[in-house]
Protein 1
Amino acid sequence: MSPTPQPKPPHSQTNADTPDQGGGLSVVQYWAEQTLAPAGPQLWQTLMHKSACLSCAWGTGGQKGGFRNELDESMQRCMKSVESIMAELMPAVPPQFFETHSVAELQQLSSMAADRLGRLSVPMIRRAGRSHYERISWDEVYAIATAAFQKPSERIASYSSGRSSNEAAFLLQLLLRTLGSNNLADCSNLCHAPSTVGLKEVLGTSTSTVSLEGLKQADCVVLMGSNAPYNHPRLMNELIKLRDRGGSVIVINPIMEVGLVKFGSPAFPLKSLIPGSDISSHYLQPIPGSDVTLLTGIQKALLECNQVDWDFLKAHTEGWEAVVEQARSTSWEAIAQGCGVSQPEIEAAAEIIGNAKRVVFAWAMGITHHANSVDNVWNIVNTALMTGNLGKPGAGVMPIRGHSNVQGFGSMGVTVKLKQEIQQALEKLLGRSLNLPPGYHTRDLIDAAEAGQVDTLLALGGNLYGANPDTAQAKRALGNIDTIIYLATKPNPGHFHGLAKTNTIVIPVFNRFENPHKTTVESGNNFVRMNDPGQTHLKQADLIAEITFLTELAHRLLGDDPVDWRKLQDTRYVRQLIAKTIPGYEKIAALDDGGEEFTISGRILTQPQFKTPSGKAQMKLTPLPDLSLPDPSHFGAANGANGLVLALITARSYSQHNTVVYKEGDRYRGMPHRHCILLNPLDASRAGLAEHQRVTVRGEAGQLDGVEVIFGAVRPGAALMFYPEVNAIFHAKTDKRCGTPGYKRVPVWVEGKR
Ligand SMILES: Nc1nc2c(c(=O)[nH]1)N[C@H]1C(S)=C(S)[C@@H](COP(=O)(O)OP(=O)(O)OC[C@H]3O[C@@H](n4cnc5c(=O)[nH]c(N)nc54)[C@H](O)[C@@H]3O)O[C@H]1N2
Ligand SMILES: Nc1nc2c(c(=O)[nH]1)N[C@H]1C(S)=C(S)[C@@H](COP(=O)(O)OP(=O)(O)OC[C@H]3O[C@@H](n4cnc5c(=O)[nH]c(N)nc54)[C@H](O)[C@@H]3O)O[C@H]1N2
Ligand code: SF4
Ligand SMILES: [Mo]
């Protein structure tokens, strides 16, 4: 393998506040500060509690204890876990707060300010025409909710966010389906749905084909569209170990994220923490949205240097001829121009992949947040198949999942596209056919609500208002729904802007580590964890367990049809139902009788046998995307105005969890506050914009003024701003096959005053 020089962010491009590595001592400092904070003892009690980490789906904790992963390795907690726990350990919002602050006042709160109010602690309602939320009795909650769910089944819906348990997810879908509705919108529709939909079609499975153990055997990882140092920090340790054993990491990302170049991990205090460990061996910065083209280039280079595994293609795949032909016949000029990466850079990446024995292709939102997201996933699979890197130990495809139990929600059937096996099992349980009309995924739900076609919505967590593109549309849509019932641990702007036409109810729930009963979650690596019961620090609060609310509502609506819903308030019986109905989950029933946490069967592929009708992997031809951007006039820019049209990446800062902002700045990108745009200095000078100048950023749905220009190592033609604030200004093109918005390629006009 030819050695490639270690990439470094070009200093001319980053700003003076960008550190030279990710992670590092500041992480340890954060742990120390939180440990010494008043809630420090509670933090440590929670960290030691046997429950899975709240934050990301990499998965840590559970039966094995707070710091252990599925392979029983210790020291597996990152500071993001601490961040999410500390937010939950806040005191309750004082009960009189909502009586003295009108909804209009609450709407002025930023996401961070809303979260800092504290924990929700009593059920509340905002009635039509009233200016304030007020406390409501449980009897009235159930009376309103029961009446609301007696509406026609096509007019009722749910939305869910992946922090709740498998048990709550299973009950939610069972309730909606028993009522005759498939309208099970979920945050995964805005997230990894392209991976789920794409992988299912070509491999017959919809999650990672690689286990944590498998990842440890890989000698190359291709990391695409993931900012793991921010969002999946423990994955960084696997990359460090991979580099230590001589393996390679190819990073594909339009932004040179400092932590993907060098990362100081507290898990290796002497070797890595202060000096930092090299992460990427090779760093490619393509045009946002051009990954299909870049991958076609990698395939072309593999063909040209004879590194395609023909025997594998012929024996284990179908449709390879067309994919190979596209790579062969597309010119290098078209590829280099289409993705903005030069032929030699692409060839160097292909050489590393071709020479490696076991390659894992891993990806996150930079791949899925595009109008052609399913194509992105398919062309990753194509590349893995062309090199024989699927269906063998230590190799495969790995969507890096988001919320800590988002994958569990999909497994439990919270989806508008129910797997046939689950449908059949549920039909047996219900004793009736489940041929329900197609349901609304999240974007369809918003459109249907806007059109006045939804009466009732139950939101199990999340921030439907803030997570969608075009928040003004989301607000209008939610305002057309008669009754909305939010179940949440913390207040967020969605509760203040996402008001229903008649009744908006907010129900305070126990979080994972407080739940009075056992629950389970599923990690992105297909491992099922058990959470022990816990206690809340909110002694005066009137919280409810999600499953208690769902089963009680179901009982009032359905009596004992098709199950004794109240009996399911003991989650052991929910697990028995899951074992009977959810493929791969057979072992969950034994968890209550001393059984061990387990890897879901049938998911990890160590043999090239695929769950497709022919048993072979299906290769799909993926058209090269057209990435043209509109003219300035499209945004109403005056002739000769001082600015430029860019492809805007909307993503997470270092200190936020999705729509919840924990801290103003992003220290690793050198962005001092939320109201910044990260620009390449070359673009800035092309448009006559200076660093720290305030500009207007205009999308197709609105504009933000006074945005500060920050220089960074983002490739020319692209820029970055933070979600959820930026969601106010754009509509997003969605991939029709999965409904996922193109959040990572938002056309915008950036204008500075002369
Ligand atoms: N601390 C923390 N952890 C989290 C979350 C959180 O908000 N905070 N959120 C959780 C959730 S729900 C999710 S989905 C994940 C999100 O995890 P990520 O997917 O890592 O999050 P994003 O911030 O959306 O960043 C995506 C990366 O994709 C790159 N990118 C943008 N466009 C393209 C492109 O066209 N091609 C390629 N190859 N790359 C591109 C961006 O530059 C960025 O580095 O993290 C989960 N974990
Ligand atoms: N522009 C842009 N938009 C995006 C993205 C992007 O990258 N760019 N990312 C998209 C992605 S990947 C995702 S996943 C979505 C996220 O969308 P959502 O999942 O809808 O949003 P979150 O911010 O994760 O929801 C946080 C809220 O969940 C509630 N909560 C927390 N824990 C619990 C619990 O245990 N139970 C209950 N009932 N409630 C709880 C709290 O009230 C908290 O305020 O956003 C999407 N939107
Ligand atoms: S990597 Fe993810 S699951 Fe593991 S401790 Fe950090 S936030 Fe939690
Ligand atoms: Mo996500």
Protein 2
Amino acid sequence: MRLVISAFCLLVLFSYAAAYDPLDPNGNVTIKWDVMSWTPDGYVAVVTINNFQTFRHIMNPGWTLGWSWAKKEVIWSMVGAQTTEQGDCSKFKGNVPHCCKKTPTVVDLLPGVPYNQQFTNCCKGGVVEAWGQDPSAAVSAFQLSVGQAGTSNKTVKLPKNFTLQAPGPGYTCGPAKIVPSTIFLTPDKRRKTQALMTWNVTCTYSQFLARKNPSCCVSLSTFYNETITPCPSCACGCQNKKNCVKSDSKLLSLVGVHTPQKDNEPLLQCTHHMCPIRVHWHVKLNYKDYWRVKIAITNFNYRMNYSLWTLAVQHPNLNNVTQVFSFDYKPVNPYGSINDTGMFYGMKYYNDLLMEAGPRGNVQSDVLLKKDKDTFTFKQGWAFPRKVYFNGDECMMPPPDSYPFLPNSARVNLPTFPAFIFSLLFRLAIW
Ligand SMILES: *[C@@H]1O[C@H](CO)[C@@H](O)[C@H](O)[C@H]1NC(C)=O
Ligand SMILES: *[C@@H]1O[C@H](CO)[C@@H](O)[C@H](O)[C@H]1NC(C)=O
Ligand SMILES: *[C@@H]1O[C@H](CO)[C@@H](O)[C@H](O)[C@H]1NC(C)=O
Ligand SMILES: *[C@@H]1O[C@H](CO)[C@@H](O)[C@H](O)[C@H]1NC(C)=O
Ligand SMILES: *[C@@H]1O[C@H](CO)[C@@H](O)[C@H](O)[C@H]1NC(C)=O
Ligand SMILES: *[C@@H]1O[C@H](CO)[C@@H](O)[C@H](O)[C@H]1NC(C)=O
Ligand SMILES: *[C@@H]1O[C@H](CO)[C@@H](O)[C@H](O)[C@H]1NC(C)=O
Ligand SMILES: *[C@@H]1O[C@H](CO)[C@@H](O)[C@H](O)[C@H]1NC(C)=O
């Protein structure tokens, strides 16, 4: 048994390290460079960042893209983004480049920059929506003019060692690969043009690399049992406990406490779970053909407004969602046939902003599900979600033996073991 458990743990670790996400197996961020023209000493390229992840967006404070030049390239100018440092350009007289660093670090511009610094899909402070939320907003782009570089597709050297912080760690990028040149359609769709050369870089996310603790937890309750199953204690690690703030603390009225920090360091409300986010799943009503769940998301971070938040949930009955009252909803179908996963997100201008901790720091909605007579049951925790992800990070569930259960139902302990083996087999099968 011990062997099986350690094998299972290893498998989990390994699947994390390989950046494999069972709910979004094909998700990635692609960085595409299109060379638009060759110049006397280099080229002009358009760099496009596409977020192909179903439910993981790039949130505040946005992406930071880095790479290493293969030779002595410099960036003469940039439109729609900027490097964070210019570096040492002292050997240039007259025309001084935008950046002379060997490893430039690029960030998006903020909204509202002057028109002549803008570029299509730029200037959103590095925030990029998830593909499942809005494919047209899952993109960010800028243009740069590279000097001291190759001036043809035979002499150009591809940049190396791409890094993407989106924001913070978690993404691993592969090498740049030359791909068939992008074809562009003019706005009136009457003419096609073509990039002179195109290369792609693919980056994938791993929660394991991003942080050592979860960043959210799940609590459960039902109409048929008054027990509220709380989030597990220290679900998100208790190392911040000494810095947490009680919800009635006078500190909270001080100016500046709610200001986001440069390093995105949270200021958490003191809770036993110490998570910035709690997702509560309440089994609310039972009708003849339907049942109703209430989902509430609570923010415990005083320093963060979550814009464009997403909640991905796996539950066998999500194949038959009848109505979602106050969130937008989209089914996610990672394996074609089993559509037991869905994505909830805020309605634009209504609740797509989950406010900082406090009286307004929560969003909620009811979900009406149609019962499938063959599988529906309130027994053995069937009515609770199997997996919950907030903003693309998996939330910690309470242990199954603490779930509220149906009164008078004989507890069957037997299924735990086969269920464990089954999940092991399932992981192996999809791996
Ligand atoms: C990146 O994601 C897209 C969309 O899911 C997929 O078509 C493509 O194959 C992925 N690329 C890699 C290298 O995995
Ligand atoms: C390169 O990236 C673009 C998106 O930026 C994608 O549409 C295209 O399929 C990618 N090409 C390859 C060969 O992966
Ligand atoms: C380089 O450009 C030439 C034409 O200028 C073209 O025939 C060739 O296929 C290109 N090579 C690559 C790798 O794009
Ligand atoms: C890329 O990164 C590797 C390991 O971090 C390093 O050894 C190598 O020198 C880097 N390459 C360039 C061109 O900076
Ligand atoms: C969150 O948004 C509200 C309203 O826009 C603003 O007053 C507050 O300062 C923001 N909080 C943070 C931490 O950014
Ligand atoms: C689940 O998948 C089936 C078949 O692929 C489809 O007909 C059905 O509409 C899907 N359900 C939802 C809620 O998307
Ligand atoms: C949803 O429920 C209806 C009615 O029970 C059923 O006919 C249909 O097959 C269900 N859809 C799925 C995808 O299970
Ligand atoms: C509610 O569920 C808890 C387990 O979480 C159990 O201990 C308790 O007996 C249940 N209450 C009733 C009335 O069955």
